[in-house]
Each structure stands twice: as structure tokens, then as C-alpha cells.
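WARN retry 2 of 3 for item q-0093 after timeout on previous attempt; input resubmitted unchanged.
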Amino acid sequence: MCQRVNFGYLENLLIRNREPAFADTSPLVLVDIKLDADPTTILPGGPGDLELCAEFCRLMSLLDEIVNGRISRIEVRSGVPRKVLCEQPVAG
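OK item q-0093 returned
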């Protein structure tokens, strides 16, 4: 999904059992379109041929920590999740 977005945001992503719950509800996808750039730019290797970078590995670790919950926003740049905004309970 990050590759398809390329530049933009995924919002309100439900997490169930450490996995994105696309069947329950689809996240809101916001695509950031630059009007002065070529919209046909494709990531090297094409869809499905993505090497897992550190950001993807950190996102997978975060899903393991959340277990069941919601990620408010994932910022995607060049098809890679760069920033995550998620809810956390207040301690103590």
C-alpha cells in the first residue's frame, strides 16, 4: 500500500493481532500530488519487488507492540513509511 501511495498519508489504520485489519475497515488514503512533477514516476523494481528498509522493519516492530489498536497516521515518502502517529495510554 505504501508503494501505491508513494507520497502521502494512511490514516486510521486498525491493527488486530499485530496485523493491519484491512477487512474490518479501510484506512483513509491521502495522496500528496506535486503538480510540477511527473506523475508516472515508479519506484525501482516495480510493485512487489521492495527490499525491506529499516523504516519498514521499525513499522513491523511497532505493530507487534500495538497488538490491537489504531495508528492515526502513517506518513509515506517515496513509497516508504517515514513517520507514524499513534495513540498511547498515559502511564500512571
